[in-house]
User: What shape does this take?
Amino acid sequence: MANEEDDPIIQEIDVFLARSLLEKLYLFQYPIRPASMTYDDVTHLSAKIKPKQQKVELEMAIDTLNPNYCRSKGEQIALNVDGTCTDETSTYSSKLMDKQTFCSSQAASNVSRYAAAVYKKGELHLTPLHGILQLRPSFTYLDKADAKHREREAANEGGDSSQDEAEDDVKQITVRFSRPETEQARQRRVQSYEFLQKRQAEEHWVHLHYYGLKDSRSEHERQYLFSQGHGLAENTELIKSPSEYLMMLMPPSVEEENDKPMAPSNVLSMAQLRTLPLADQIKILMKNVKVMPFANLMSLLGSGTDSTAVLRCIQQVAMLVQGNWVVKSDVLYPKDTSSPHSGVPAEVLCRGRDFVMWKFTQDRWVVRKEVAAVTKLCPEDVKDFLEHMSVARINKGWEFMLPYDEDFVKKHPDIVQRQHMLWMGIQAKLEKVYNLLKEHLTPKKQEAQSAHPLLVSGEQRVNMAKAKVKQNYGQLEKEFQKQKAEMKSNDTSAKMDVSNIRIKEEPVSDEEPMDTSAYEGMNNGIVNGLHAEEDSTDSLNGHLPGGCVDRVAQELKAFVSSTFKKQFVLTLSELKRLFNLHLASLPPGHTLFSGISDKMLQDMVLDTGCKQILVPFPPQTAASPDELKVYALWEAGDTYDQHRQVLLEIFSKNYRVRRNVIQNQLSQECGEDLNKQEVDRVLKVSFYSIAGLIHL
Assistant: This one.
């Protein structure tokens, strides 16, 4: 208090913020001038700038009449630079070094804390600086002098001997053809110092006109340093508390942190991490760890973090594999990047890594040679994929690095079901890209990879028994199809009592879950994070409450109706695939996640006005039973209803039909002559989704 009384406030000054030159004001720092050079109106001969680089070049005159100027040295420098001849390209036309060039460099990278101030009539006007440039002498004229010297020496050596000139007339040359530049080589070239220097040199100079200190234009521009309006609306930034105002004037300098130990550029402390948004925190953690249980992720995010928000964010950057979260491939390999080993583009790498992740949803073990054979990628890339999520075991293969997280699967069945639907969509894409065979889709048994007997728990025995039942179910189904084909070929009665066999075609109960998988196997009891026995429990596909039945039926009917209005003819397999994709797009907890069986789906198809078309496919067809069940919308209310019904009658008699037969039949039944283009349009609209099963 005593110090404050000794230092009283004698004057208060109003501070205003001028905006007219907000991004146009630069501060030039000139070097200490020699006695022969004065920074006045006469000395500035020319000026030019490169705006993108904030680089300025000034040409200033030297007072050659000053007694401190050494005339002999000025003449010698001009002679070395220009030689004896003078023309338009000469640097010094007066044969005397009478000017000096100055080039700028940025004095500070962050100039937001600097401002130019003007004090007038008890008011202080501040204008933020856009840049601070230090001007230094440029000695490019010395390079020009060296070049002239080398040219003169070369000319003298060339004139010494005419015999040498004759010998130089004929020279042997070697022609080389450059190889195509790879993406990796192009990135190295773009980041090189030579390329950056070339890019900077390509920017054109913008010539400026210099106005002196006493020029009327300079006086006009100086008026912009004063605030144009003194109202509160113009200076809202200055209506702040003293501490905030001081922080605006003197923000914490980044340079002060240089004394602290520097961490690598790719390392982020937990304190820094928790200052980021939740989505960025999860993305950075998953990108670095690559595989993590949900419980570990919650512990890293700190107490008080909402688990629902975390679940929403984690699904954007990771996929569920055996109850654990594995970072998505497109997060590790962004677009327009390539492999550091082979130069393969990111799209191919993502596809190969997705295949490895999908294999781990089927089994705990993956063989490296099998992955390389399917993906056709180099061994280094495949090894990187496997090291992200698995551990190599001698004489066994690669085992998924984390145990199955049963707690997460039990707590979040809706998330597990949603992820399962997403994996079904990824599997369909991989089957088309890699032409996967049956052995790729069927997981290998763990016993084949074990060199010694293992202890089997009771739960595993139950899973093995259920897997064996499913395998027997597939064999019985094949035998039935074979028996059915033999009966048709022998023209026996198709109405024989086969009710006991048809139980294998359709689930007996409406509550049995729909088979949304294109494969069956033991999987150690794992189906993309679901235990095999859990796939049919009440948690996902059990008994529905009475109030939910109508809502489920309405949602299912709306899906079936909209689907058949778009495609008209669908196989059961394609319909189930579209239904899985529809489920994947729904939010967690939707009513359709309560469980839809095959029978419920087929009954709803028939209730919406569709009919099953019994296409007589050949017995030796490789199509699955679901692909042989064809459903069609009988009346869509468009102009092609009659044509479509005629086509369905044709294909109910034969699966292979010539186009001319179709065209003649349509003309007879519809009473109009259709050309080839119209017939093709009807076929494309009606039978696009089963074009791979029928033959035209």
In short: The two ends are 101 Å apart (CA to CA). Residues 548-695 form one domain.
